[in-house]
Amino acid sequence: MVTTQQSPLVTQPLCCMPLDLLWMVYIVTEAIRVLLAVNMKGLVSVCCFVSVLALATPEEEEVLDSILRDRTHIEETLRLAAEESSGDYAAALLRLRKIYHNSIRPMEHAYKYSELRQHEISAYPGRTLGDSATDGEITSKPMVLFLGPWSVGKSSMINYLLGLQDTPYQLYTGAEPTTSEFTVIMHGEKIRSVEGIVMAADSSRSFSPLEKFGQNFLEKLIGIEMPHKLLERVTFVDTPGIIENRKQQERGYPFNDVCQWFIDRADLIFVVFDPTKLDVGLELEMLFRQLKGRESQIRIILNKADSLATQDLMRVYGALFWSLAPLINVTEPPRVYVSSFWPYDYAPNTSRELFKREEVSLLEDLNQVIENRLENKIAFIRQHGIRVRIHGLLVDRYVQTFKEKMSFFSDPELVFKEIVDDPDKFYIFKSILAKTNVSKFDLPNRDAYRDFFGINPVTSFKQLSAQCSYIGGCLLEKIEKAITEDLPGLLSSINSSKNPTLSSCEATGCGEKPKNRYRRN
Hints:
The protein is an alpha/beta fold. The protein contains 21 helices and 10 strands.
């Protein structure tokens, strides 16, 4: 008679199991759930794993480690073990804040630039400061935004990068739509969650402008703080998945406007797809319209690539480009990364070496954002200053033209209506191009000023020649000095103080020299 020896995992009831075995059962259950959600091929791996676990009780931990992917390349590529000199970084940020507050912000307030931005998003389809730029926005960490359809692996990717899988603090994942909130994962001294109303009320954070989207949205906003080396340098934002068969009104808040707010402030945007969700509907099409002008920050991710055979993967890759081609009208398409971003090992008989190289390349992109975060911040503030200067020059020209056309018997409303309805007739924009060093490609939309002056009467503004004081100087001179001297000088001092170090590609052997795609000249 042949007897078989069963594992204690099988024979003992749950109430009698030790805590370590209960934890093992939980991990196995989660692995089964996630693998089955990805593809039925995962069933084979799960069955093999459960069989080995049941028969090889003494080696349970070794078996568990064998299905988890090695994470050492993440720490090496992102240099999480390296200590950074925070003194120089803090000093440079202090100088940047001083330049902004002394030279740029006075013209912002004098000519109400924030209200122009509020009425005209398409005029400047790039990053911008908030309606009331705070020190929190200037000193904020780089933001990485995750967008895409539901259940494509956005939350799982964040769990993988932060090593949160199988911990009580991991983001909830599943085959069904699971993320219904905008989740901001940021650094903190201890692990805790922060309600949206608290984040909006805290002026020291960069999220206070979100209050304008209403209380219904703030209930769908949540922050998670935790001590993590990566979060000391970057902030992750997980978004609700796009569901094409549901109307936007059912969300209870302006979803597209909220997405635009995060898009305008993101340093890197990951748009995630999986092989089963390549169709483009109205909501996804609207999302790519909002991404227009941000192509250099977009990275397309084809996730769960190990769930397909190589030939099928090639077909899916082509189908993805075919679906996205009408939505991305640029000469150089965004980079597409093909891999499987979750903690478990790649499926057998797949292109694991290719997936590993793709993952390292994506980590290099993320590392570039981290390494150049101060340079990007300075370049962004300078770009913002250029737009504020152009706005001030245009308002000055409107005021000057209005005063020239006014006479004793003229109706002020009719005179200015004629000017604002047809600014080209009075050479408003052409005079700016002729007299100042302004590119025609930086000019905002003419229609934006019709709405702007509809709320702000032209008589409430002074000309630039009158915006001077003996102590403070002239607004125009200060902002021009900041754009041409102060900010470029600060950028040069940072570049000269950097010490050349071994690139993370050389450390990880990825064989691809990283390029800084974010620095604005």
